[in-house]
Amino acid sequence: MSNSVKIVGPDSSAPVKISPPAGAVYSNVARLFATPNEVVLDFALNLNAFGPMVDEEAQIVSRVVTSYDGAKRLWMHLTQTLQAYEKKYGPIELDVAKRMKEAP
What we know:
By secondary structure, the protein is α+β, with helices and mostly antiparallel strands. It contains 2 helices and 5 strands.
């Protein structure tokens, strides 16, 4: 995977180098809220995603605060990525119950 990011806009001539992250986290749920100046994305781990398994709430594993233009670029890239995935593998089913296979 490349560590450069393509910049969209007037300063798009030079790639920006991004150092690898210190560590990765897994998230299966996200919450979004906004202020007049920023968009805040909380990524969390919900251990009860498939029904009651543990007696605890979802734990936030990462929070990203970005500008509205940063959020729009993220939305554009996510849209392109999801469209390419669905073109190759088919639609992503959002209803967990429909994705579950019954036991034989």
